[in-house]
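Q: Here's a chain of 458 amino acids. Please give me its 3D structure as tokens.
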Amino acid sequence: MSGPGPLPEVPEALLAGYLDAALATLRAADQGELPGPLRQYQTWTPKRLRHPRVLGLVRRTLDLDESFRKAVDERVLEEEKALARLVRSGRHAEALASGETPEAVARVGLALGTEGEAAVQAAVAAAATSQARAEAAAVRSALAGAESELDAARERAESEVAAARAARDELRGAREELRRVERERRTLADRVEGLERELAQSAAALRAARDEAAAEQRRLGGRVAELQARLADAQRNYRALRRSAGQVDPVVAEAVGALERDLDALRRATGLAEEGGGRGAGGSSGAVAGGARGGGRPAGAAWPERRSPLAVPGGRGADDPETLAAWMGADGVLVLVDGYNVTKHPAGFPDRGLEDQRTLLLDLCRRLARRFGAEVTVVFDGGTVGPIPTRLPLGPVEVVFTDAGRSADDEIVARTNAAPPERPVVVVTSDNELRARVTALGATATRSPALLGLAAAR
């Protein structure tokens, strides 16, 4: 008996449904009903049965084994009864138009054999048409995508052109800026060369000034040596006078004190170290000036070598008003007041005119001098006022206006130095430099608010 004949040549996609029915028949049939070549695959899973080698064997079996082919056809027709009726009646086109897939129509057409050949061809044509439509849709989609990409590419190109134009403009601006910077660099280079020339000239001038200063210092050193010799002679004469008369002429003592003050000023100006703690050979200038103020002292009496500062009362500070009150009550104390340093202090009278400042301070010092019995000397810079007497009597208070070219600080230091070493000296000032100078001479220093604070005390 001849076989059923080969399956029609149809696309694999349309044949897939018929082969699925064959695989289902393979799994569902009895072992004895299956063709020999297929029996070993009955227990395989559907996924393994779809192996190309197994599918090729099933397809050859369909072409050769009529009973297996018939079993598959019966299974397809049983599953697609309604569609099979339409195909048998030649209404396969109506089935395709109603929504049946070309695969389903082809599977029923293959199961019907020669009766379904027209349906198979119609399914092939419908599949081809559907594929062509799908390909056309894909082409249209690809074309739309290409147009979209073309538009995007055009926009990118336009943007890149604009960016390139902006970059070109920016480059042009950068070149202009570079040329401007180069011009400025050349200008600065010329300026640096000029400054270097000026620096060289300044260095030369500085060296010349240093040489001149060294020469001036040598000249002043010679002058200091000369003054020291004169001071030594004056002190020797002074000691001779003391030994011979027991009393010194005030004019001589004042001259010696002035000479020593000038010597100290020269030492400070030249930076030379003082020899013997700021005293010439043979004794201190303070002793000389003290002889003038105190009327001398008997020959052979002991003279202190250095003034000692007053002690600070326990529990108080050196700038406490009560401490100053205690010092002003000390025996023989001399209180030297830095006038404008006190009046211009924020706690003083800085908002008043100079005349009012002096009046208020002198009135305060007069009251304090009478209250504590202290000798008070107020020193003002004379350059800030018109021509006035150097000393003005004001009861227990002495007022001093320095000569032009001499500061109140230098006057206070000179008076501190001129006071006898055994006499306590209190200097009222907030000037740190002046405080350092007078404390180096053994004086006691307190700040301006201490004196101003006594104005509020009883």
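Q: Can you summarize the key feature?
A: Residues 296 and 324 are 29 Å apart (CA to CA).
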